[in-house]
Amino acid sequence: MDRPPYYRPIRDEQVLFEHAFRERLPVMIKGPTGCGKSRFVEAMAARLGRPLVTVACHDETSAVDLVGRYLVKGGETVWQDGPVTRAVRAGAILYLDEIAEARPDVVVVIHPLSDHRRRIYLEAHDEDVEAAEGFHLVVSFNPGYQRGMKELKPSTRQRFVALAFDYPPAEVESEILQGEAGIDARTAKKLATLAHKLRRLDALGLAEAPSTRLFIDAARLIKAGAEPRRACDAAIVQPLSDDSAIVEALSEVVALAF
Ligand SMILES: Nc1ncnc2c1ncn2[C@@H]1O[C@H](COP(=O)(O)OP(=O)(O)O)[C@@H](O)[C@H]1O
Ligand SMILES: [Mg+2]
After folding, report:
1. Between β-strands 76-81 and 127-130, what pairing exists: parallel, antiparallel or unpaired?
2. Is 216 in the pocket of ligand 1 (CB under 6 A)?
3. Given 164, 183, 207, which residue is the final one in a domain?
């Protein structure tokens, strides 16, 4: 078997997820971009020995995309399961990433999967599919109301047990940087401290807080041999902003760290 994905637990989220899985309670993972939501779900699927079906939802994602559709193949129409139907039949962990971004009809599909019914009705195909043993519904949601991100209806939210994720404390983030990029402890600590400093600079008005992912990328460049300031510019500063004043302010903080 493949090695399970590296995941550094932050609190008791793994235990709680396992309880939810056994109790058949759908899970919602809330948190900002790049804080480890997807990695956590990948690690949990491996831990529980379940296949994982991930759907990255966006504003065009519709119920039909998820459930399935008839396709014309060589003059014949054949039914093709969508990812949700495949997950339901396979008893997989179904991860709907950024569920709030999807079209409203997606919610109609997931409601009967999120309660005791654990089933899905394929209207176009007139088939009622019961979820196989081991099926588990997980969604992620980025609560970014200040930034005009979409909200989730309360009636939908209340169908899930919710785990709140955030960027990890500096010591833990430093450990993750070492684990992911294989850099030395000293450089990892500098990058993690930088991460925390930059996240506190609200005054910069960044559209989104700098995610762990950026610091991992910087760590990889440094590990590969890039000069640290140059690595931080390319992996952190430039992806965050095009505004020259903001770029300058970010660069100053980087220069203090390295
Ligand atoms: N707790 C963690 N353990 C291991 N790696 C992590 C952790 N948190 C974040 N990461 C790293 O950060 C990257 C971004 O995390 P990801 O799960 O993709 O974020 P999200 O899904 O929340 O946007 C991952 O690819 C992984 O390298
Ligand atoms: Mg993700």
Report:
1. unpaired
2. yes
3. 164
